[in-house]
Amino acid sequence: MAFWDGLWPGRNAQFDAGTSATSAITLSKRHATVSLDKQGAVSGNLRVNLSWRMRTSDIEGRSRQGGRLLRPLQLFKPDVVQAHTQGMVNVDLDLGCMYELADGTKGVVQPLGNLIGDLNTPPYIRLSGDDRFGAPSGETLYVNLDHRESFKRLLFFVYIYDQTPAFDRTHAKVTLYPGNGPRIEIELDERAPQARSCAVFTVDNVKGELIVRREVKFVYGFQSELDRLFGFGMQWGRGYKTRA
User: Which of 22, 50, 159, 187 has a Cα-to-Cα distance from 12 of 20 to 30 A?
Assistant: First the structure.
């Protein structure tokens, strides 16, 4: 192999089918579904993680353009920092899950109302914590796939608890980590400046097979509007979170 062969990414990609090619599956509009069963995720805990970072360009403007003159391509690339950086818009993204079990039971697991769920008893879904600052660890929900037969359908969603709607300023991503098989990534990459909630993905039990479907549908209301959109038919009231 010539020396320069190694300088061209992708030139020999057809021979590189190792772990890097299978470590992640990205769901998009074109490729919106994946079977957990076909990926080998048939037991153990499914970890669903929400993480986000924020753009600063809409707050700082172009105050740092002068230093970019030596790198002109950077003029059109917004700065990205962790969401808790001082001077940033305060955005509290929360991760939740509406569920319908095989026996008809319906409910929600979310930070509001301290509805953290349970892994070993119904609904077999549990929230690990409430991250209010966009820390790298984000927020995580766990789903006990050892009770997969108990699930009829699940809807995972993200909402802004309070403050100014700012989905258009965030780089939010939801990642699924099955106990076996590659991780599954879903970017909330569609701009919806005034939206307060987003239905990210669903999991449906189709004849015993769990199918993940990317949704990424933004709405301007909260959980009740997501409920109407997906037809869960639950009753909703005003919810609050305790302040740390």
Answer: 187
Q: What is the DSSP letter of 209?
A: E
pLDDT at position 145, please?
Answer: 97
| Residues 53-66: tens digit of each pLDDT | 766 554 444 444 44
Euclidean distance between CA atoms 204 and 36, whole angstroms: 10
Show the tokens assigned to 240: 């609050």
Radius of gyration of the chain (CA): 20
Task: Give the model confidence (pLDDT) of 182-203 as tens digits.
Answer: 999 999 987 777 888 999 999 9
Cα separation of 33 and 30, whole Å? 9
> What contacts 121, CB < 8 A, 6 or more positions away?
none
Residue 117 φ/ψ, nearest 5 degrees? 80, -165
Using a 10 angstrom Cβ sphere, with 0-12 exposed, 13-18 middle and 19 or more buried, the burial of residue 97 is: buried
